[in-house]
Design a protein that fits this description.
The protein has 536 residues and is of the alpha/beta class. The chain has two domains: 144 residues, Glycosyl hydrolase domain, family 39 (Immunoglobulin-like, Sandwich), CATH 2.60.40; 370 residues, Alpha-Beta Barrel (TIM Barrel), CATH 3.20.20. The protein is built from 13 helices and 22 strands. It has an eight-stranded parallel beta sheet with strand order 3-4-7-8-9-12-13-14. Strands 2-15-16-17-22-19-20 form a seven-stranded antiparallel beta sheet, covered by helices on one side. It has a three-stranded mixed beta sheet with strand order 1-18-21, with no helix packed on it.
């Protein structure tokens, strides 16, 4: 197989929305008060283009937004939230507000999920919850101005179909959504609210019942059968029908299309199956069709969590195959959604407590010590694409920048020997090491015409040993813990990728052929090398 990048600078194009860089995830609000979290967010936003960030725990007890006084009064304190949101906005990033979890003084049940004890619970008093939401949103309007807050999104809860995250029924979530959405709209009708923020897609609609807190079981004897099943988003159709029947607002639809098995009892537990490599674009096409046929066809679609797997201890997240999967899935999903938010930008993340080592398989694009992973480069490459789509073919895409006319192309070698999404690798690296060994080199052909005579074209390659922190770490002898000198060395090593500088001929043509190893990603830009890309 040959992967081909072929285009003329004058070829017609169509608008290309960078849905991959609209939003990125993070763990919880309290973590956002830390210096490393804030530094890494600034780096990710500046280098990968992220414009919004979403996180759990806005109303968790460690943010001190709500507590009940000795006399039974409801007291509010926005100092910690103000500190966090001020710093987000100063960094040029807006909040994609997840309204949850429940403050302890309003929670029916407590400490249902995560090391930090989130209260995944319906409120004991819906009226008190509505008051909390309304006071919080009014505070933001007063502090930042209504025009600014109108640019935000308000998502009701997180994965309410999973019992650790919501210890209630589907009907109770629908009641919570309606109460919350109306409380937001009472502040200003132009504020954008949506849901249901449910976890995962499941085989057909038979699992879309009233309570989906148990691991779904289907009679599947071969992995191939998993790819043949029809997968549907959990609760979304029922949610849209419910909102339409009651006249509730839905400005956007959200869910979490992890390319894994079915909704699990909790992240990382239950049966693990890996779906086809095309699971993400297939799921997004299904969701697009559902929304288009609903009573809310104009609703935006925001997939507010997504990664190769939903485990914060999957060593694939530290390796090259995860980056290649990110590029492949996003390129193949062009035109289907308004955002697909990677979970997460940082390993400053404590759902399961602190990671036991620098490279523990955390979700982050950047590890705890500020060292870039291959997925960081994947999003940097995607961000470098232009705003016009010129060519899209298997394994490659060519774009143009409207303002300058410059071409940018992206190619990836996701080996056909892996017909599935990259599989989970836990507790060790054995699975991802076997995944890396799959496949053989392919030929990459680059043929560009219509360039300015002598134009400089840079070919940047993400491959084993290039933009690859783990290889550099192993060359150091795999130290654990990392010394300050180790961290400085690995930050620099992880930022370096192989580059070649080519020039167009006097007729504005450029032809180049090279071998492309399995799992590699190539960025071709009509511009000079811009230097190191190093997280702070």
């Amino acid at each position: 197989m040959t992967i081909t990048i072929r285009a003329d600078a004058a070829d017609p194009g169509e608008p290309l929305a960078h849905f991959w860089s609209v939003c990125v995830g993070a763990g919880r609000a309290g973590e956002g008060l830390r210096a490393a979290w804030q530094e890494q967010l600034r780096t990710a936003a500046a280098t990968c283009g992220f414009r919004y960030v979403r996180f759990h725990g806005l109303f968790h007890d460690d943010m001190f937004v709500h507590h009940r006084g000795a006399d039974g009064s409801h007291d509010y304190n926005f100092q910690y939230v103000d500190e966090l949101f001020d710093r987000l906005l100063d960094a040029g990033v807006r909040p994609f507000v997840e309204l949850g979890f429940m403050p302890g003084d309003l929670a029916r049940t407590k400490n249902t999920v995560f090391w930090w004890g989130a209260h995944g619970s319906p409120p004991t008093d819906l009226g008190a919850w509505a008051e909390l939401v309304g006071r919080t949103v009014r505070h933001w309007v007063d502090r930042y101005g209504v025009d600014e807050v109108r640019s935000w999104y308000f998502e009701v809860w997180n994965e309410p179909n999973l019992r650790p995250f919501f210890d209630g029924t589907r009907g109770e979530y629908f009641d919570l959504y309606g109460t919350t959405a109306l409380a937001v709209k009472e502040v200003d009708r132009h504020l954008r609210v949506g849901g249901p923020a449910t976890s995962n897609f499941v085989p057909d609609t038979r699992f879309d019942g009233e309570r989906e807190d148990k691991t779904a079981h289907a009679t599947v004897t071969e992995a191939e059968d998993l790819r043949a099943l029809e997968w549907r988003p959990v609760w979304v159709e029922a949610f849209l029908d419910h909102c339409a029947s009651l006249g509730l607002p839905v400005d956007f639809v959200s869910c979490h299309p992890y390319p894994t098995d079915w909704a699990l009892d909790s992240h990382g537990e239950g049966a693990h199956y890996t779906r086809g490599a095309d699971a993400t674009p297939r799921d997004l096409a299904v969701l697009r069709e559902i929304v288009d046929k609903s009573a809310f066809p104009q609703a935006e679609i925001h997939l507010t969590e997504w990664s190769s797997t939903p485990s914060p201890r999957d060593h694939t997240h530290d390796h090259l195959p995860s980056a290649t999967f990110v590029v492949k899935a996003n390129v193949e999903s062009i035109g289907l959604v308004d955002s697909l938010a990677y979970w997460t930008f940082t390993d400053v993340f404590e759902e399961s407590g602190a990671g036991g080592s620098a490279f523990h398989g955390g979700f982050g694009l950047i590890n705890f010590q500020g060292i870039a992973k291959p997925t960081f480069h994947a999003y940097r490459f995607l961000h470098a694409l232009g705003d016009e789509l010129v060519v899209r073919r298997p394994g490659a895409v060519v774009t143009r920048e409207t303002a300058t006319g410059r071409l940018t192309a992206l190619a990836y070698h996701y080996p056909p020997e892996m017909p599935y999404s990259v599989p989970l690798s836990t507790p060790g690296r054995d699975v991802v090491e076997a995944t890396l060994a799959l496949g053989s080199p392919e030929v990459l052909e680059i043929e560009l015409t219509g360039l300015p005579a002598g134009a400089t074209v840079t070919v940047e390659i993400l491959e084993p040993g290039s933009g690859d922190a783990l290889t550099a770490w192993r060359e150091l002898g795999s130290p654990d813990p990392l010394s300050r000198e180790d961290i400085a060395f690995l930050r620099e090593a992880a930022a370096i990728t192989r580059t070649e500088v080519l020039r167009a001929d006097r007729d504005g043509g450029l032809r180049h052929t090279r071998s492309l190893p399995p799992w590699s990603v190539v960025l071709v830009t009509q511009r000079p090398v811009l230097g190191a890309h190093q997280p702070g």
